[in-house]
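Posting here for the record, re: acetamide.
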Amino acid sequence: MKVGYIQTSPIFGEKRQNFKKIEKLITKLKADLIVLPELFATGYAFVSKEEAVPLAEDFNGETAQFLIKMAKITGAIIIGGFIEKEEEKIYNSAMIVSSEGVIGSYRKIHLYFKEKLWFFPGDKPLKVYDIDGVKIGIMICFDWIFPETTRTLALLGADIIAHPTNLVLPYCQKAMVTRCLENRVFAVTANRIGEEKRGSDHFTFTGKSQITSYNGEILSSAPRDEIYVDFIDIDIQKARDKNLNEYNNLFEDRQVEFYYNTDKPK
Ligand code: ACM
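Prediction output follows.
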């Protein structure tokens, strides 16, 4: 299975220009799975909910149409971030599409920093999509710091985790090695580059998009500050064997009766 990412540098609020740049990068690609960054068409650093709302869409919006067109060109399943609108609520979401249309969306459950001021936290369960026998889980950016997110997707059967990001902290790429190793899943972390200085915020995005293997190996690592595209072949069957060695199985060896499992920390 050929999987990869497009590391971009979105211009804040300029959806059409951002679409055009991706279209140029994508035209010669043939792949099975392409992951784009979080909020790849809108930019990230909003100053108010009022600013984000006009950029929000549903599954009939221009971002969905664009992604479906890209899926037709490449033959790939595409996952990319967008602002999802449902009635009065907006979500930091990622859409999964094929050449035939929108398959679904994931609404980010762990909001970072001021995202909490404009986005509603995800209100749908974590889900794994079975696409022609490949099990794809989705999480967005800051979800990485909660190991429960990856674990839940892995326990739901994910072979590969599509991980659109707009990373601003320097830890995620290293953490994904552990997230993948402890769950024996693949992950494609598609990050962005560039800076956004808006209101009182100044974000520098950390690039270094990454494809991480089920055994913790880094299969692809993008530069820190360049637009970059990379694709590799992976064998997803490797993610279905949870044996670490002849004595240890990462799922069967879990000792759930010893784990603290209530809603709030003591
Ligand atoms: C982030 O979750 N975009 C830092």
